[in-house]
From TrEMBL, chain A:
Name of the protein: GPI transamidase component PIG-S
Signal sequence, renumbered to the chain: none
Top-level taxonomy: Eukaryota, Viridiplantae, Streptophyta, Embryophyta, Tracheophyta
Family per record: Belongs to the PIGS family.
Membrane topology, record value: Multi-pass membrane protein
GO (cellular component) term, any one: GPI-anchor transamidase complex
Automatic annotation (TrEMBL), chain B:
Signal sequence residues: 1-24
Protein name: GPI transamidase component PIG-T
GO biological process: attachment of GPI anchor to protein
Cellular component GO terms, alphabetical: GPI-anchor transamidase complex
TM annotation in the entry: 547-568, 626-643
Organism taxonomic ancestry: Eukaryota, Viridiplantae, Streptophyta, Embryophyta, Tracheophyta
InterPro entries: PIG-T
Keywords from the UniProt entry: Membrane, Signal, Transmembrane, Transmembrane helix
Organism listed in the record: Eutrema salsugineum (Saltwater cress)
Length: 604, 647
């Protein structure tokens, strides 16, 4: 009503003096400021109060280093982690070969082989070459790394290689190069021995030892010099660097290690029908004798625990067919996805494994009398020699047929799998375990240039294989850590009303720290330290991501906030803003009136 | 399981460390199964499945197992459980009809819902943590909400009133837990034969859950090895007790119904579980003592026992055992096969009546009082016509007394006034001194811990009835603490009445092989009975109340604030002048408008109400106001839209 009111000046004593005074457009006194002042004060105090209100409805969000997370993942994406490795090639019995020339040729060969796959976890190599002529005189390239111990000339005798067995040679090489590891990464050596043409054989034997040595023995190698160089560089790249893994086989992303760095190997013996026969095993002894060295060897990569159980009444879920030719039941490879019967196979291990450990199931399946003997058939029609298969990230299955499939007696026979059979089963297990880690189960590595014999270790994994594993593992851990942190940061940024506890912030901080440490350790060649800190980084990142409070999105959402505060603020704000606006408008109007009046007065 | 790869392995050379040692030399894990059938006086049949799994003392527990379930062993190892019992029960045990003074009822009559107690082998400070972890592990293992027992308001620490005397004992029960197949399946998974073979194959889910009472129990205890450096052995006992009603053709006759295993369960036993060491079916017939007790030494008499004038069994029992007032027929099911399944049947020929042995006192519990504020709980103990009443009582000072322990947990929202405890014996109020021998009370703390009461009553043997009443106030819960269906009310867990001087056992004269069920029956067990679960209605708030309060308060504030502001900036003198000037001229339209407004407001027309300006100006003002309001609403809507859809 105010704006339609026209001010009538109460002190209109001047109306007589000023005949042109129009009360509709003029006023004679200065407009008052009281009400304008009150309303603006109220408005401003409201505006000042808003930040406080905002503060009270704010939820706690621990500050996360979003920028650092992004830069870490960018760094891991762009520059794959490389470990320093030193390669040492020793050419024994070569007459006139320049080590520097050899070195550059091997280096070219290595570069050529590594070119396409500059993947994470590969080597940042330094190469040294020693040539020892038949008179035990040496010439060697200058090593770039002074800390690396040099090969003492003349220690390797040519005749050792011809006579002794491979294992003995491996041992003697270990003595030769003992004390050469531990400085600036691992040192891998290849010894090429040019034998004097003893028996006229033209065969070239290439063996990769249990430790970090390989040797190529042959006669007339000096003549086939280019071939030898190619093979040496192939050993360095394909075997020592990549662990003899095939391209396209199980990839590094499928590292079967739980995010807390634990693996539970759960062995189950399945008697598919105990009415026919019951088999038992003495697994404890197997565990102590055969599996303990393996778990010990893998300790830097994962903390492995072993469990076993015997289950009964566990038929497989698909049928097999009788093959007259080989007198056995046949299960085709194409049906393998239907072999594991998750309804009846209660393999689950519960309390032993904490939440995020990886459980690998290894199953020995004993067929019932109706399907005995049972064999797995390869796609090419052959019968599988191991009678087993693996499923990546799940485990492996072995079908074990009892010796005698006839069971005439009314009552089921109770047997124990003999230690010899059990040993064979464990060998297959180990092969499957190696395959789950991406290694080959064969003891031979074949390439275009020839085949290499690989000496198997009684621990399941040779030293150079463990090196490959820890490189891959570090890499995989860092990769998984960065993706986990990346998705955490994306999640946190996409949900502005999510509560983030300090604990999560700290875990992220420590995880970043551990990841940085792993990277720096990797660059200095600390294999086990980088593996352990990368493990920690991954585990912390997963802990942060799976923190129980992470999904506690505040129930006090914007909608809620609006619903609670609008009954108060909407009417009040309406009043306050409108009052201030009107007072301001009125003040301007009145001021204009007053100024016209002043102007009129002046003109008058 | 996406990609399966066939391994082709050339065998790794492994050094053989294996030294073959004969397996027979060491103790092995043992499993045995048994089923006890018992006709009940009220034309029902009790079936009690009993499975026992023993793991000998070994250091590889939790790691390597042959028959014993690995999950249970890992549980024992991880939480250092010394003894534990978990039961899932649906229905209430009828103590009058189904017996109250025999090992079966004292061990297998359990309170409704879930009951869990455990004794731990850890230091005192860690017992609660172990309990909490154990509840979570069991909850996952048995698909039940046992994890609700984790909160300190739901469990208690009984000292002597419960049974096993240990200060590392924790007890909790969930009366409202619904028990069904999802609990039975994981329980069966612990058996080596599951329900594929043997006696457990009888557990046809529809027939098991159609019964009147169903109690599934898991009891595990560790056996000290006695040897240095050797972990203790574990005994896992799993029982399922069901009370079934056989389908009868002749309704109305007094003859007890005729039944067979097939008619009860819809299945037959097609052979034993081949892994079981012993596999037996027992049939217990009660109340035949008067009939046959003269002499039955000869083979002829024994034959008459299972084919006589009263009833007839379809199969010849392998052995017959005699107790004071019952017979136990034992059947081995070794011989049965697919072609000749084991199907035991019982045919009654004459109407027979008998009664079960009763506990000395029959307990019931009820609520008194009305309203949502306070009430009282009463436990009534009534004497039964048990002939055994005197057997366990002790004659001190020449007068015969009967001891009864009462153990009761009160949730914290039932605020019990312990000073109002009143004890009536034969309708006469007694002071505490006369009958109360021992009492242990731990009061509840609000939202922190539940209250517990243990008391030992010493009643005269001739007592007809005893009643205990105690008053309570109902507490108020926080709005967050109400369960989903708050209006249903809150359950008070069953009270446990036990008779420390009475032990039930079946005292067979003949010695029998060490069948686990049989030795369980022979074992002396404490006579105990659980009372009903009580349902206490608590005041439930209107759960939308906080919003209403907020809205009303805000509206009041807004009204106050707005009017205050209006008053502050009001110009009274100016308005008066305006009104006066308005009174001079009145337009036709304006008048109509003001009349309309007055009519709407329900006030008499303010006479000199007319505008000084033209109707056009008036309407333009109207439209600008309208426009402003429209802008305001649109702005609010835009802001809402902006905030509700975040990027």
């Amino acid at each position: 009503m105010e704006e339609i009111s026209d001010h009538l000046n109460p002190t209109s004593d001047t109306s007589g003096l000023m005949p042109e005074f129009d009360p509709k457009t003029m006023r004679s006194s200065k407009p008052g400021l009281k009400r304008l002042f009150i309303t603006t004060t109220v408005l401003f105090s409201f505006l000042l109060g808003l930040p406080f209100l905002w503060k009270t409805v704010e939820i706690y969000r621990s500050p996360l280093p979003f920028h650092d997370i992004d830069s870490l993942s960018n760094q891991i994406e762009s520059t794959p982690l490389r470990f320093p490795c030193s390669f040492h090639a020793v050419f024994v019995g070569f007459q006139s070969t320049d080590p520097d020339k050899l070195r550059s040729e091997i280096q070219d060969g290595i570069k050529q082989l590594t070119q396409p796959s500059s993947q994470c976890g590969s080597c940042d190599f330094s190469l040294s070459v020693t040539v020892q002529n038949p008179d035990d005189h040496c010439s060697e390239t200058l090593t770039s790394d002074p800390s690396m111990c040099s090969y003492r000339c003349g220690v390797i005798k040519r005749n050792v290689f011809g006579a002794g067995s491979d294992v003995a040679v491996d041992e003697s090489l270990a003595d030769v190069f003992s004390g050469c590891s531990g400085h600036g990464g691992k040192m891998y050596s290849v010894v090429v021995v040019n034998e004097e043409n003893a028996n006229g054989e033209d065969e070239v034997k290439a063996v990769v030892g249990k430790r970090r040595h390989a040797w190529i023995v042959g006669s007339g190698l000096e003549e086939r010099y280019g071939d030898v160089v190619a093979r040496v560089s192939e050993i360095f790249v394909k075997v020592f660097m990549n662990g003899g893994m095939e391209e396209g086989s199980i990839h590094g992303e499928f590292m079967p290690v739980g995010s807390d760095g634990r693996i539970v190997l759960s062995f189950s013996l399945l008697n598919s029908n105990p009415r026919d026969w019951i088999y038992d095993w003495d697994f404890q002894r197997i565990d102590e004798a055969l599996l303990a060295p393996v778990t010990k060897a893998l300790a830097p990569i994962a903390n492995i625990s072993v469990e076993s159980q015997v289950l009964y009444h566990t038929p497989k879920s698909s049928f097999s067919s009788w093959d007259e030719k080989i007198q056995s039941y046949i299960f085709k490879t194409s049906d393998l996805p239907f072999f594991v019967n998750s309804n009846e196979w209660h393999l689950d291990t519960s309390a032993g494994a904490s939440g995020r450990s990886k459980i690998l199931q290894f199953v020995v399946y004993i067929p019932s009398g109706k399907e005995c003997p049972l064999h797995l058939q390869l796609p090419n029609g052959e019968i599988s020699k191991t009678n087993g298969f693996i499923s990546p990230m799940w485990g492996g299955v072995i079908v074990w047929n009892p010796g005698n499939c006839e069971n005439d007696s009314e009552r089921p026979s109770r047997n124990t799998i003999s230690p010899q059979d059990l040993e064979r089963i464990v060998e297959v297990f180990l092969g499957q375990f190696r395959q789950l880690f991406g290694f080959k189960s064969e003891a031979i590595y074949t390439s275009g240039l020839g085949s290499y014999k690989i000496l198997p270790s009684e621990r399941g994994f040779t030293e150079w294989e463990l090196d490959v594993l820890s490189r891959k593992h570090t890499c995989f851990n860092l990769h998984s850590c960065s993706t986990t942190l990346g998705s955490l940061s994306r999640l946190v940024q996409s949900l502005p009303r999510m509560i983030i506890k300090d604990e999560i912030g700290e875990q992220v901080k420590y995880s970043m720290k551990a990841a940085k440490l792993a990277q720096s350790n990797a660059s200095t060649g600390g294999y086990s330290s980088s593996a352990s800190s990368s493990r920690e980084a991954r585990s912390l990142a997963e802990n942060a991501f799976f923190h129980p409070s992470i999904m506690s999105v505040s129930y006090f959402s914007y909608e809620h906030c609006f619903a609670v505060y609008s009954p108060f603020f909407l009417p009040v704000v309406g009043h306050v803003v409108l009052a201030a606006l009107r007072e301001w408008k009125r003040y301007k109007q009145e001021k204009a009136k007053y100024s016209t009046w002043l102007a009129r007065k002046k003109t008058a | 399981m996406a990609r399966l790869i066939l391994t082709w392995i050339s065998l790794l050379i492994l050094q053989s460390y294996l030294i073959p040692i004969a397996f027979g030399s060491k103790e092995v894990e043992e499993f045995s199964e048994a089923l006890l059938l018992k006709p009940l006086p009220d034309r029902k049949v009790l079936a009690h499945f009993h499975f026992e799994n023993r793991a000998p003392p070994s250091n590889s527990h939790g790691r390597h197992h042959h028959l014993f379930p690995k999950a249970i062993s890992q549980l024992v190892q991880k939480f250092r459980v010394k003894e534990m019992e978990l039961s899932f029960t649906q229905g209430r045990w009828n103590h009058e009809q189904w017996g109250g003074f025999d090992p079966l009822s004292s061990m297998n009559a359990k309170p409704v819902g879930v009951e869990l107690w455990a004794v731990f082998d850890v230091p005192h400070s860690e017992v609660d943590t172990s309990w909490k972890n154990l509840t979570h592990a069991l909850s996952g293992l048995f698909c039940a909400s046992i994890n609700f027992l984790e909160s300190s308001t739901s469990y208690a620490t009984p000292t002597w009133g419960f049974g096993p005397n240990s200060d590392k004992l924790r007890y909790g029960s969930l009366p409202r837990e619904a028990v069904c197949t999802e609990n039975l399946t994981p329980w069966l998974k612990l058996l080596p034969c599951r329900d594929k073979d043997g006696i457990s194959a009888l557990m046809n889910r529809p027939s098991v859950y159609r019964g009147f009472y169903h109690s599934q129990r898991l009891h595990l205890s560790t056996v000290e090895s006695g040897q240095e450096g050797l972990a203790s052995g574990i005994v896992l006992e799993q029982t399922l007790t069901v009370v079934l009603q056989p389908e009868t053709l002749f309704v109305g006759t007094n003859i007890q119904p005729t039944w067979s295993i097939n008619s009860l369960f819809g299945r037959k036993v097609v052979g034993r579980c081949v892994l079981a060491k012993s596999s037996n079916v027992y049939l217990q017939m009660e109340g035949l003592s008067g009939h046959e007790s003269k002499n039955m030494d000869t083979e002829m008499e024994a034959h008459e026992l299972w084919k006589n004038a009263d009833f007839e069994l379809s199969l010849k029992p392998d052995r017959i055992l005699r107790e004071i007032n019952s017979f136990l027929f034992i059947f081995d099911i070794d011989i049965s096969s697919d072609s000749e399944p084991f199907d035991l049947g019982l045919t009654w020929k004459l109407p027979v009546k008998w009664s079960c042995q009763q506990a000395p006192l029959h307990a019931s519990r009820f609520l008194m009082g009305s309203g949502n504020e306070r009430g009282a709980i009463a436990i009534l103990l009534k004497a039964t016509d048990s002939q055994d009443k005197l057997s366990g009582s002790d004659l001190t000072n020449g007068c015969c007394t009967l001891k009864a322990n009462i153990f009761q947990i009160f949730p914290w929202y039932i605020k019990v006034y312990y000073h109002t405890l009143q004890i009536f014996v034969d309708q006469q109020e007694k002071t505490g001194m006369e009958v109360l021998k021992k009492i242990n009370v731990s009061p509840s703390t609000d939202k922190m811990s539940s209250g517990m009461m243990e008391m030992m009553l010493e009643l005269p043997c001739q007592v007809k009835s005893a009643a205990i009443s105690i008053e309570y106030d109902k507490g108020f819960l926080h709005i967050d603490e109400y369960p989903p269906d708050a209006n249903q009310g809150f359950d008070i867990p069953s009270a446990l009445i036990s008779f420390p001087d009475h032990h039930a056992s079946l005292d067979f004269k003949e010695e029998l092989s060490k069948s686990p069920l049989f030795s369980k029956l022979k074992e002396k067990s404490l006579v105990r009975s659980y009372t009903e679960v009580l349902l206490v209605p608590l005041t439930t708030p209107d759960f939308s109340m906080p919003y209403n309060v907020i809205t009303i308060t805000c509206t009041v504030f807004a009204l106050y604030f707005g009017s205050l502001l209006n008053v502050l900036r009001r110009r009274i003198g100016e308005e008066e002048r305006f009104l006066k000037s308005q009174g001079k001229k009145t337009g036709g339209l304006k008048k109509m408008l003001s009349r309309l407004v007055a009519k709407i407001r329900g006030r008499p027309i303010e006479e000199p109400s007319s505008s000084t300006e033209s109707p056009e100006a008036r309407s333009s003002v109207f439209s600008s106001k309208l426009f402003f309001k429209f802008i305001l609403v649109a702005g609010a809507a835009a802001a809402w839209q902006y905030f509700s859809t975040d990027k």
